[in-house]
Amino acid sequence: MRAQFPQLAATEVVLVSEGWDYLIGIVDWVDLCRSDPAVDLSVAWSTLEVDLRPAFFDAYGEVGNETRVRARVVAAFLCAMLADWARKEKVPSVLDAAVAGLRRAIDEDV
User: Fold this and answer.
1) What distance in Å separates the CA atoms of residue 22 and residue 24, rounded to the nearest whole number?
2) Is 42:78 a contact under the CB 8 Å cutoff?
3) Half-sphere exposure of 74 (CA within 13 A, CB side)
4) Nearest to 28 by CA among 51, 56, 2, 49
5) What pLDDT is attached to residue 2?
6) Percent of the chain at pLDDT above 90?
7) How far apart are alpha carbons 57 and 44 in whole angstroms?
8) For position 108, what pLDDT does the model report?
């Protein structure tokens, strides 16, 4: 199933579950960001619990340690900025999600 999110610059790049409950895939990474792979890979730290990251990287393929560090920093930064915005704008659901992402981003790998 393709989902379109008109508020995003890149549309038709996200796969969601049948009930639209959760993200199951990204169709085209390049449309999301044309930059350092760490920007795209930051999703591994902001959305995945520690115990799920090895499976993600096994499926993704080889990623250098420097790229992993940059990805983790990007994840923490983006979540922190989103949390700050959500707090100021009084959007509790976004604040909760951003804080959870920040906690995952700084959680140590096993």
Assistant:
1) 6
2) yes
3) 18
4) 2
5) 43
6) 40
7) 8
8) 77
Kind of pairing between the strands at 2-3 and 14-16: antiparallel
Over residues 30-55, the pLDDT tens digits come to: 555 556 888 878 988 899 988 888 88
Q: How far apart are the first and last CA of the chain?
A: 34
Tokens 């959680």 correspond to what residue?
107
CA distance linking residue 11 with residue 55, whole number of Å: 27
Residue 101 and residue 47 in contact, taking contact as beta carbons nearer than 8 Å: yes
Tokens of 94: 């976004």
SS3 66: helix
Indicate the domain borders of the chain.
Answer: 1-32, 34-110
